[in-house]
Amino acid sequence: MNRMIDKTRRQLKRKAHIRKSISGTSERPRMTVFRSNLHMYVQVIDDTCGKTLVSASTVEADLRGLRNTVADAEKLGEVVGKRLLDAKIEQVVFDRNGYLYHGIVKSIADGARKAGVRF
């Protein structure tokens, strides 16, 4: 039990450290990633007005077939990238949300880059 509490505290500490320096604007919003054991969630947020501009997750009806794997994470990143380009957003700031930039988180970023979004 204590190990899980410590692990969560360390992640929250990393998240707070990252969020000190990263902020999304209307020209360059913040793209944040959350992953659970079953699903992946990506949001693009304008922090100046506190609005979510674009989002995608594996709980949506058309993306429900995607699982928590590196290959499917890249597909989710491509979907987010296409939605961003449809919303006329070409540049974002990537917020890894305290996760290591490896595996699923990296694949989401690569998928968005493949779709044409610049970081």
Short description:
With 119 residues, the protein is α+β, with helices and mostly antiparallel strands. The chain contains 3 helices and 4 strands.
Report on this model:
This protein is of the alpha+beta class and 119 residues long. It contains 3 helices and 4 strands, in the order H-E-E-E-H-E-H. It has helices at 2-21, 70-86, 104-115, and strands spanning 30-35, 40-46, 51-57, 93-95. Strands 3-2-1-4 form a 4-stranded mixed β-sheet, covered by helices on one side. The longest helix is centred in the first third of the chain and has 20 residues, at 2-21. The mean pLDDT is 94.
Strand order of the largest sheet: 3-2-1-4
Report the uncertain regions.
none
| Secondary-structure element series | HEEEHEH
The counted number of beta strands is 4
Distance between the termini: 38 Å
Q: Count helical runs.
A: 3
Query: Could you give a short account of the major beta sheet?
Result: 4 strands, mixed
Q: Which band does the percent of strand residues land in?
A: 15-25%
Task: Kindly report the average pLDDT value.
Answer: 94
Q: Compute the CA-based radius of gyration.
A: 14 Å
